[in-house]
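Fold tokens
===========
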Amino acid sequence: MDDTAVAGVAEAFPRVDGVLHCEEVPLPELVARWGTPLYVYSQGAIRERYRELDDALAPVPHLIAYSVKANGNLGVLRTLAELGAGCDIVSAGELHRALLAGIPGERIVFSGVGKTVYELAAGLRAGIYAFNVESEGELCALSDLACAMGTRAPVALRVNPDIDTPTPHAYTRTGHAATKFGIAAAKARGLYKIAAKMPGIRVRGIDVHIGSQILEVAPFRDALEYVLDLAHDLRQAEVELEFLDLGGGLGISYEGGERISAADWAADIVPAVAQTGLKLVVEPGRFLVGEAGALLTRVLYVKEGGGKRFVITDAGMNDLIRPSHYSGWHAVEPVASPGRERARVDVVGPICETGDFLALDREMELPKPGELLSIMTVGAYGFSMASQYNQRPRPAEVMVSGSDATLVRRRETMDDLVAAETEL
């Protein structure tokens, strides 16, 4: 291999003789078979990242409950299921996917602030490991439902420790008091005591999730300190616990810098958890799959106007909304690099919105119409947030393992756009 791609994803997407590959497969070959826009995932990268985290947590009993909302493709879920992963879900639809992928109920935790009675019942029928309960109302509804179904619901209360975590965007900070998430710290102890006496509830653990794309260990350490204090108080009150759930949030590198390492994170977390004798549950999403994905798109036109140069592609905010919604930064790489002049451009899509862009004011090799670009680090919150806005079918998804490439989701058709609708 004569050079590398973006730091952090070089092994998954190496550049060989000037052409980007996914593992051993040239990206142009994938486009020739399945067209653009096209999501491509490195199975090897997913496996490697899971094993890195699993090894780091080895000193304590643990469950890696992959956050399905990051990427719910069945191929991704089955890859993780084979490695022993569980799932963190936030809907009945995600529960359905997890079970289809072969992840058993006892490895599933159910999060989310607005679970419906239907979803609570589905979780109970599936025998999930725990519900992460986010309000007193949910706790009461779950107890009543479990009694009606002749069972007891295993729960952890998701506690809000009021930690304002430094994340790249306000929307990804979930641990401070002003968010909709979790139960206020001041109310947690009292609600645990109530839960322990409810006939349909089995208290099983404590849950906390402070945000997403966190690149420092300190916020996790602060959250753990709060959880350990709460666990101590609950044990003093004879409330039995089995696990501590520290949520997800481990960040990755989008711009080629250092990411948080599983070993560094675990060095601060694991020894403290080990002293409690409790099981550790974590809910990583983007940490496992983010760097394993790329979005391939073809340049349609290049034009100038208003002192700007626009590279117009066939992928847009309907395919990847992170740049528009979260101000997310993604590297944009020419699939074949001819070493031509560089220019400062806006990479934009075909959607009729000014907010439809993949990269703004980005210096890059100036492509020509018909050439391919690769949008990097999109394995998390890429396809999972895609839509049919402007009535554009969603892209296909491909999984690569070594020299093998498998279509794991076909491209949607025009008929798919109207398949769920009924005639008047």
User: Anything to note?
Assistant: The mean pLDDT is 91. The first strand starts at residue 15 and ends at 16. The radius of gyration is 23 Å. The longest helix spans residues 218-236.
